[in-house]
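Re: duplicated header lines in exported structure tokens

Our pipeline writes sequence and tokens for each protein into one text file. With two proteins the header for the second block appears twice in some exports. Here is an export where it did not happen, for reference. First protein block:
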Amino acid sequence: NLPIEAAIAAHRQRRTKDKNAIMTMVLREAGTAHRTKMQRVSPVFVLDPTKNRCLHYEQMRPNQPSHLVTLDPDILKEHDELEIREDLIDCGIDICTPDVLALWSDNFDYEAPRKGFLHSVLKDYELNGKTIHTHIVDEHYAARVKNLRAYDAVTKDILSRWAYPICPDSNLVRDQTYRLTKGNVYREEGVVLARSCHIGPRTVIGRATAIGDGSEISNSVIGRRCIIGRNVKISGAYIWDDASIGDGTVVKDAIVANEASVGKKCNIMPGALLSYGVYISDGMTIKSRITKVKRESGYDQDEIIRGETDKEIVGQKGEGFEYETSEDED
């Protein structure tokens, strides 16, 4: 819900005075422990507050041996006032001039907008003379979803109405019918709730979903046409459309994707992810990411093929195998 008119106006005014001002980044003030901040990487911005100019950028990891910022001595000589800030959330909103596209096309080794492009442009200021500026806001809401941790954090903020009017009961998507009830519970039409089930705060339930007797759901998003059995406990989880959860199963801080099915008395542990169409047999404990398909590199493009089921992980009647993540994946 962040209006960017002020950022665009400031960018245009700055560009009129200085043709080398090629980009403005929109950043949001937040505490150092805000849940929408990146967890594995802490972005550090060195700014000239008198010109709203970014002078240096680094990414720090919690496990790196040194947490010192290395600045070019010329930055200290040429600027009377500096701010070194680690409390800013990168919204992923950049207002750019055509010069940015030209720099990207001339440098094919830029792999990321911040770690590659931003860092390099700031480092090469003496060579190219291009400057990058910031527009920092302390009101409204904006965040970039780039991994599952951010997906969870932004969803929780939306359900808590920090991003109002971006919230389920605004029904911004065609054919949605969500209504807000006590405790930030959002329900669509056609939901079937057993008399003895309990729906806790910050929960979304989609159309035509049925929830059985004795089940408890809180801090979770349940999609459309889902079947939740009896005595199921779901907390901090995301159950997508057409999924089913068997009687007595516990799902905590996990994702169950479209058309996935979980048997009876299973335990889906925090951080687990069941991909599209995965089936988990009764009584299984899942701690990892499970999928039915894998990607194989081809000549022109990658090919998606069905993998071999691992019965030790998904059970005798299950379908799926453990997905191996890369080291850089968050």
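Second protein block, exported in the same file:
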Amino acid sequence: MRIWLIIVLSIIVITKGLSQDNLNLRIVDYGTNKGLAYCNISFIGTKQGSISNSEGYFNINNNTSFDSIRISYIGYKTLKLAIGNIDNGDIIKLHKTEFVLSEFAVHADNDYLYQLLTNIRKKLLKNKIPYTAKVYYGIESQTRNTPLELLECFYNGELVGEHITDLTYKNGRVGLASVDGNYFESFNTAKAISRINILHKSEVYPSLPLQFNKRKLKKLFKLKAYSNNSNIIKIEFTPYNTTEYFSGIIWVDNIKHTLLKLELTANNTSKHPFLPIHNTDKISDVSIKLVKSYNTNEQLSIIDHIYFEYSFVYKSVRGSSMGIANNKSRIIERNISSKGIIRVFDYENTFIIPYFNYPDNLYYGDYYKMSFIPYNDAFWNNNHSIALSKEQKEKLGFFAAEGKLVNYRENNYGNNFLLRATNNKDKETTHFGFYYSFWNKDKRITIKKDLKQNELYNPKKEGLIVKRDLYNIEAQILLDITKVGDSLDFKSYSVFDSYQTFYRLPTDSISNAFINIYFDLYEIERQKMHDNILKSDKKLSTANSIYNESKNNIALITNKYIEEVQLGKNNKEFEKWNKFIFDNLGIDNLKLIHYY
């Protein structure tokens, strides 16, 4: 193992041959040997790159089309290295850039600094260019020294200028451990953190300098600047009112007037985006740290990653109505701390989002989506945004032994997601109530009568309603496509959609068979669709065409089935469709209900 030192700005080292397929490297501070977290690694000659993990480690595949990398980290000198001159296990040491109090910082009221931030704000506001990109999100939470959660998700991101405006889920996985019989989960944190708007005030975040014009900025913040022998300026800002405003540091390019990095800190703030899951619970003593790092593209700032930390005191109240055995309420206070990263990468080269319709306003956010977008081994084996740290790997070991690893393997999605196992299989429950059931030859589905849309029709209260308007059965074919090198990997599932289904008629064994035959028709069409895709040229456009054709086919088939069977009242047609299912899937739904 060798150590690379950076001596001058932007050195390119001479190439030599090496044989490793993967290079595992580490970036550290020259003076302290401490790993530098979330350094930017650019693959020169491409639009791709990487980022070091929280311990400074990163990986590079040696079988790449680029031959050199650029390592940059605000506050340190930039380094260029030829891939062929790097050995596996090398440590790359970066020198700090010394910053001193700037000359203009001591003049009058620092008017130049206020004007500089105003100019940068104006430039950012003018940037309305839309982008798309891949997004990685990772968060880990703990109470004291006990790990609670390690969640990883990938998305497609939509951006306008430097701001992330939307995230569309691709895949996710999580490790969890309970404390006092309860889990702690971060719902919608990715959206809450990514959507902080640094240019406009928010009701749920403290304010910051780039949200104000020059006149208001002078009234609200004290500025102090430091510079080095380059064009980078480090501006420290301190609010006069500390309760509703961030303090922090803004790193800017003084020549190009571009934003390079933004560090925000708020302690014991009353403005924050966090809500307790139960209205009897309370959150207090909230502290937040956000670090937004940027790349520049044609002198415009584009987001590279957001590092975040937050902590709070969570006070939970649990009574008999919430699953406590006795009638006494139980009050528990826990100090919760979380940290994580949101990385934006591969601009204009996004994931193929699963073909599946679902409401985006799901309360449980990513946890809900993990339940109906199954774990995809091809995806996780071919997408490595940030290497897990040693500490994170140890936490996963803890979750495997003491808690749950969810979506780290196949077949724990749908109604099996976060299953609470008991000795009595009939009393097993899931952590949440889920809307989506996956087709399984050995498991038949039933209408969820606890859902409001399945409330029994009351003609005395509601008047006359046509019977056909009292039920609607919905299912979907989920198609998940993953890019693997130059080819595509295909996974598909039949999913019963309880969210869009409603059934307000009495249920019995006949209605159960009626619904299951309907769902089985989807599985037959799914199998046909999947076979057709695999027999095709496997291009994305072809798969898309086959999928849409299958959607049209199944709509025609199920409409015909509903018309002919008449809720099972037409015995002849009912038996005909049941035979069709048996011939194709080997399932006799009528025999299962002792129809014969």
